[in-house]
Amino acid sequence: MSIVVKNVVKEFGQQKALKDVSFSISSGEIVGFLGPNGAGKSTMMKIISGLLPQSAGEVEVCGISNTDYNEVFRRKIGYLPEHNPLYLDMYVNEYLLMVAELYKLGNKRAHVDEMIELTGLGLEQHKKIGVLSKGYRQRVGLAQALIHDPEVLILDEPTTGLDPNQILEIRNLVRTVGQEKTVMLSTHIMQEVEAICERVIILNRGELLIDHPSTDLSRLEAGNSSTVFVEFDRQPVLEELQGIVGAGEIKNVSGYGYEINAQADIRKAVFDFAVAQGLIILTLTRQERNLESVFHGLTKE
Ligand SMILES: Nc1ncnc2c1ncn2[C@@H]1O[C@H](COP(=O)(O)OP(=O)(O)OP(=O)(O)O)[C@@H](O)[C@H]1O
Question: Domain named ABC transporter: which ranges (predicted)?
């Protein structure tokens, strides 16, 4: 196992930011770490990276406890913190050489050049970090997280604040890197998880809510439930519409358009209803539940 988290608790004074969280991540997995604001994602990532001690429980990275925060442990992990703190007055090259020095890497120049190549920083390497765009700063953050060739990469919201092109570039980079490393990535973007990750872990209020292969997540909470959108040519009798077998909550979303929640696919019943009522159906679609709605459904009050 690359990462083993056993019964981890983190207390900040009276507040329990993590409450008995356990999971493990195998070597080579790319895992998305989701949860609403304040769920405990960053706290968990700092603990795994050995930068914050847990109040209780155990964490191991590549078989080494995070309490042994020694050189061997640090070499195993690359960490990109939330907000990517960087020395803005330093030049890209200078900064990466300093990071290589901190890891006591041999042939520092070669490592820096390799990172510049990997992260596409060639044209920016002689600039001060402070003048770089957010996307390029994020690449510098990734380069510092990767320069020592760690087995495990912990990325705390790596695409937050980036424009759509930069998001795609960083995602591709993470995907490339993820072919060889274990990656744990926190994000608020559901599509990111679908695009990059093989598995999703959701925290809510410090508790592990879901640990599931991400591609299956949309089926998880939804069960057989689905939402059907139907648009008629005129007003249906609402009581009759409600009488469709299996229909749950009905919402009028536009003119004669209705969203009907149901425990099954009720499109055929809606069609039969329209025929029986002499209504013409202009639109009839079943709306797939995406990760976003599943996540919302799972974490709402
Ligand atoms: N150093 C600290 N001192 C006190 N409370 C803290 C500290 N760090 C985190 N917390 C609290 O722990 C809880 C979890 O915070 P954390 O930053 O881990 O959440 P998160 O899931 O990463 O949120 P976000 O998505 O907003 O980044 C929050 O209530 C936060 O205020």
Answer: 3-230
